[in-house]
Amino acid sequence: MILDGKGLAARRLELLKEDIIEGGLSPTLATVIVGDDPASHMYVRMKHRACEQVGISSVNISLPEDTTTRTILERIRQLNEDPDIDGILVQLPLPKSIDTEAVLAAILPEKDVDGFHPLNMGRLVTGLPGPRPCTPKGIMTLLHENKISIGGKRAVVVGRSVDVGRPIALLLLHADATVTMCHSKTENLKEITEQADILVSAAGKAGIITADMVKPGATVIDVGTNQVNGKLCGDVAFDEVEKIAGAITPVPGGVGPMTIASLMENTADIARNRCGHFM
Fold first, then answer.
1. d(CA 89, CA 61)
2. Which of 25, 78, 236, 239 is 20 to 30 A distant from 61 in Cα terms?
3. Number of domains in the chain
């Protein structure tokens, strides 16, 4: 089974548009991007197109590469204090000269649509409600909507990043999976991945997951976005793994669209909560 994130995201965005209209909401998302990285600017444009599609207003703040941390913090302070801004997103990665942790911590937790603020990450760890990081949230939606059983299953996550690896491991754990996390220092990776009922790869290394590393019938979630010879590909050797996996996400068209749909849902949820219309 090919897990069609593109199709599912389109359906969820259409439902969200109806919910926003029926709820009388007027959400506004502010994005902050620093530098001229083409991929980052492409992702921001995609997010703003999704906003337009569902009826969310958007504001983009584009700053030059040499912007200081202090300047970014001042812009975030202004957005925090602006009553017309519901959600704030800082496009990552930031230039190396910027203190990323300080920037993310400066966003008000109640406006943090990415779920990266330390308080919101703590709420994720403890299982309390709050905005969840968009890519992990999208993965969980993809699993649930395709009726893939999680409880009691063995899940393996390859990659320990704060934005994907760690939060998806926690979400799977909260859904009663038995979770193993792997990373660049993990020994005997193949012996671990081939035991997984659900395998999530967020390593950022093209082709790192091959067919001999996958349990027959397993669900394989590919979070990788790598460029090889000018072509976008994931972490998974798709053509060979597809033949033995029970379900698999393609790249592109799998996790990526679900990430954007989750961002729109987080923005709408935050707007509801700020209006007192709690979910």
1. 10
2. 25
3. 2
Q: pLDDT (tens digit, 9 = 90+) per residue, 24-77?
A: 999 999 999 999 999 899 999 999 999 999 999 999 999 999 999 999 999 999
69-103 pLDDT per residue, tens: 999 999 999 999 999 999 999 999 999 999 999 99
47 as an active site residue: the answer is yes
Radius of gyration over alpha carbons of the chain, in Å? 19
CATH number, domain of 202, equals 3.40.50.720
Task: Please name the residues in contact with 137: beta carbons below 8 A apart, sequence gap of 6 or more.
Answer: 115, 171, 262, 265, 266
Amino acid at 270: I
47, 111, 153, 215: the active-site residue: 47
Q: Is 217 a domain residue?
A: yes
Given the residues 86, 111, 112, 114, select the one marked as catalytic: 114
